[in-house]
Design goal:
eight-stranded mixed β-sheet; five-stranded mixed barrel; 23% strand; OB fold (Dihydrolipoamide Acetyltransferase, E2P); 541 residues; 15 helices; elongated; alpha+beta
Length: 541
């Protein structure tokens, strides 16, 4: 059986022997042993390859290699017309009737139309086979790229199509899918706060179509990613973290990896996930705050980290997660903490510029499902004192007796006021009240009611908080004991001790990756920018 299968495989490529197949290298010549149960199955599979150039491939078990040159769908355009290519893709849709079949192949954010017509080289049985391939199956396809006679609507590659000559199923999808990708690609309601939206349909130019609810999406996250929009979101998010890393690497900062299992709360309060650690109490880190400060005390001067952050907050909102990715940095300052603000501003401009120049296809894919206005920002740093922000709100009729912090509605209202006055979506609010900040925040020298702290905003929502840190150990002890959220000193002894050997003035910030992604793209819910969202109601998949 081995020799027979090998000869048939070689014959399918116009060769008399397996060793003559161009670029074919293998330690085992049995190509079908993984899939074939008897010689009849080998005969059928091999006959399909030879006579019809279609069929189900045997299980890919690394039994052979060829020198095929694979093309990516995104690289195929009019400049590739008349070239022959191999692609591997998902069969997004297929319509087969009579002597013709029309297919849509998808890889990531890119889609390509394929055509197949029965003729003397393409039997009707091949059309029938293609028509029975279940949507979302993975296929290998060989064909000729031709210029399309008209713009191909519904495909990202609009000026070309693939004339299919060979098609093999690599991995079949199940017949009944938990959701249809075409339905998942429909725009969601602008306000996506409620997981159990009453609306079960979306109305578009094709009329009413089923709406895929968020729970179904998140329960089947691996399928939900299949939409070009979602694929684009995570490519953009990957670029954000890459640009963050590049920015600090180019400034000679040191990348660090701090512990996520710690003895006590890093920011005070009860919003920590507690656990038993070999008979002792421990918790998951709310941030790398204490450790990145200790790094500055060891003369690293500037550090950054990309890692998980855990917050046990029972907040079921469109912008809160119990686990998210933190983009943190800490840096020595020479004289004034606004040195950190300058770094923050340069960082975000670097990220925004990079996304706009490097992710054009991805931004277009997101915009096609969730239309958004491009983020408005300037190189000139816009810093608004907390007191002035409050005055802006009061002047707009949003008043309160005492403002110790900004609520979410107040932040959004301020964002609209800033956009009206300054024409931007990106700004900093500086010098928050001391009562609203963690114990390690440096008090303002001119007015002890305020602190040397700041928040950065996109589209009226906070994406990061930061501050100058207390680097005097005696003041740090006093703040830990007497802050609004007292910290047991025994849980932060090492942290305080690190300042007793001399500590430079320093400051930094902690940025939420998912929130930056959400707000840069104008998405309605942070769960859309989280790979596997974790909130008070969800811990799977």
């Amino acid at each position: 059986m081995v020799d027979y299968a090998s000869r048939l495989f070689a014959a399918s490529r116009g060769c008399s022997d397996l060793q003559e197949v161009p670029g074919f290298f293998t330690k085992s010549v049995d190509l079908s042993v993984a899939a074939a149960k008897d010689e009849r199955e080998v005969l059928k599979l091999s006959a399909d390859w030879i006579e019809h150039q279609y069929g189900d491939l045997p299980l890919v078990q690394s039994a052979y290699q060829t020198n095929r040159q694979w093309a990516s769908i995104g690289s195929l355009d009019a400049s590739k017309a008349d070239s022959e290519v191999w692609i591997r893709a998902r069969l997004a849709t297929v319509r087969a009737k009579g002597k013709a079949a029309f297919m849509l192949f998808r890889t990531g954010v890119y889609t390509l139309q394929g055509t197949l017509f029965a003729d003397e080289k393409t039997p009707k049985e091949m059309i029938k086979f293609v028509g029975k391939i279940t949507p979302e199956s993975i296929v290998d396809v060989f064909g000729k790229i031709v210029k399309s006679p008209a713009s191909v609507e519904g495909a990202s590659q609009k000026d070309v199509e693939l004339q299919v000559r060979k098609i093999y199923v690599v991995s079949s999808s199940m017949k009944v899918l938990p959701l249809q990708i075409a339905d998942a690609m429909l725009p969601e309601p602008a306000s996506d706060d409620d997981e159990d939206e009453d609306s079960t349909v979306v109305i578009d130019e094709k009329g009413e179509r089923p709406r895929v609810k968020r729970k179904v999406r998140l329960d089947n996250r691996w399928m939900d990613w299949g939409t070009p929009c979602n694929h684009a979101i995570f490519r953009i998010q990957s670029r954000i973290s890459g640009l963050f890393k590049d920015f600090f690497h180019n400034r000679n900062f040191v990348e660090v990896h701090t512990p996520k299992i710690i003895a006590g709360a890093s920011e005070g309060g009860a919003e920590v996930f507690r656990l038993k650690y070999f008979g002792r109490d421990a918790c998951l880190a709310q941030s790398p705050q204490l450790y990145k400060q200790m790094c500055i005390c060891s003369d690293l001067h500037g550090v950054y980290e990309i890692g998980p952050v855990f917050r046990a907050e029972n907040s079921n909102t469109n912008r809160h997660l119990t686990e998210f990715v933190g983009l943190d940095f800490e840096m020595e300052i020479k004289e004034h903490y606004h040195e950190v603000l300058d770094t923050l501003w340069d960082l975000f401009c670097y990220i925004f510029d990079g996304l706009n120049s490097q992710c054009k296809d991805e931004l277009q894919a997101v915009n096609s499902q969730y239309p958004f206005e491009p983020l408005k920002y300037t190189r000139d740093k816009l810093v608004i004192h907390f007191h002035d922000a409050i005055e802006m709100l009061r002047a707009a009729g949003i008043a309160a007796e005492h403002f110790e912090d900004l609520s979410t509605p107040q932040e959004k209202a301020l964002g609209k006021l800033v956009k009206q006055k300054y024409g931007v979506d990106f700004y900093i609010v500086d010098q928050y009240p001391m009562a609203a900040r963690p114990f390690y925040t440096m008090p303002n020298p001119d007015d002890p009611r305020y602190s040397n702290s700041y928040d950065v905003f996109l589209r009226g929502e906070e994406i990061t908080s930061g501050a100058q840190r207390v680097h005097d150990p005696d003041l740090l002890v006093d703040r830990a004991i007497n802050s609004s959220k007292p910290i047991p000193l025994d849980t932060i002894k090492s942290y305080i001790d690190s300042f007793r050997c001399g500590a430079p003035p320093h400051g930094g910030a902690g940025i939420g990756l998912e929130r930056v992604t959400m707000l840069f793209l104008g998405l309605p819910n942070i769960r859309k920018s989280s790979l596997f969202p974790r909130d008070p109601k969800r811990v799977t998949p």
